[in-house]
Amino acid sequence: MKRLLTIQDVSCVGQCSATVALPVVSACGVECAVLPSAVLSNHTGGFKSWSFCDLTPEMPKIEAEWRKNGVSFDAFYTGYVCANQIDPILSITSSAAKPGALKFVDPAMADDGRLYAGFGADFPRKMARLVRVADYALPNFTEAALLLGEKPVLAGYDEAYVEHVVKGVHALGAKNVVLTGVSFKPDELGSAVYDGREVVYDFNPRLKRQSHGTGDVFAACFAGAVMRGLSAAAAAALAADLVCAAIEATPDDHWYGVSFEAALPLVVQRLSEAKGT
């Protein structure tokens, strides 16, 4: 069994970040280790308040212990992190990497045309340092545009614009780009996967509900599926199906996330079928 390390925050309540990555990657049949970048009482979307504990000072200490114990990983998956954590992450993903280790980077910093609260205008430039070394970068439209130093275009675009965006992120250094939130029709939503040669699209029916944590569900499933041998295009399609199934399984009064747990059997079944096991 391959081992993946996810580096992102732990929101104790809220079905996002590491509390999504751990069960979803595990359901894919991949061992998931966790390096928390911070601990929050709950995520910041919709809750009235939250506590926050920055764990940046612990990162070098953890890396040192891993060096002593010979701990290494087949892959790394980074999500929501802060600017002062970029250097420690780059160090860990180098010192603790097995030969050929993959790096999945979800530049979780923005949505709906703007940066998340707490990030300065120069943060996309700093996040680009992680994207530069990524085997797979998974930005949404807003994040991709900000990485390129451009104003986000969220509607009224065509395939030429999508190709401009994915090729731009690829030019930053990412070997493969998975652009999420792509839509050419009002009733569909999907992704564009670019491997440096061609763009492959995948679409699902657009669901009315918008929920916290769906990007984390998508990224975690994508990483786990690639680790199990699926192509980037197939992994993106499976991840999107999981997100849709999770949204459909979520009760109306469950506002702080999606009930992805109920949809995990779909991932297990689909990966088993893909591997013939």
Alpha-beta content class: alpha/beta
Shape: globular
Strand content: 15-25%
User: What order do the SSEs take from the amino end to the carboxyl end, as H and E?
Assistant: EHEEHEHEEEHEHHEEEHHH
Spatial sequence of strands, sheet with the most strands: 3-2-1-4-5-8-9-10-11
Question: How many beta strands in the DSSP annotation?
Answer: 11
Let me know the largest β-sheet.
9 strands, mixed
Query: How many H/I helical runs?
Result: 9
Describe the structure.
With 277 residues, the protein is α/β, with parallel strands linked by helices. The chain is 38% helix and 23% strand. It is built from nine helices and eleven strands. It has helices spanning 18-27, 58-69, 86-95, 123-132, 141-147, 159-172, 214-227, 232-248, 264-275, and strands at residues 3-11, 31-40, 52-54, 73-78, 97-105, 110-111, 114-115, 136-137, 176-182, 188-194, 199-205. The chain starts with a strand and ends with a helix. The mean pLDDT is 95.
